[in-house]
Amino acid sequence: TILFCSLTICAFLTCMGLTFLILACAVPTPKIFYPFFVLLFYALSVIPVFLAKRSTPTNETTPKSEFALFLTSGMVISAFALPIVLAHAAVITWTACILTIISNIINYGTMLGYALRSAEEHYGSMF
Length: 127
What we know:
Blueprint: H1 2-26, H2 38-44, H3 47-55, H4 63-88, H5 94-115
Helix pairs in contact: 1-5, 2-4, 3-4, 4-5
């Protein structure tokens, strides 16, 4: 039941984060969908860590895993920087920028919480 509870919390937080992202596109200026570009960063930011974990199943630190963490951190920073750059260029409003950053905090916090789960669970942890 602990696994079910943690997955339910992850699902709820992800839905809440995506709700903020949809609000960023709909509330300030309708039909401006530029904040949705952070979805690319959500999908791409976990791929390097998954590939490095798959090739090095032990908990030892390798240059490959360090480079994967570097790429992941670059994509996470880019997800936070993109709405700020778009708002500074007046492509989106600052309200949309703030809603997108709130969405980023919730979604990346959920991903981090999933990644830091204990390795004793059946599905394993990311790190």
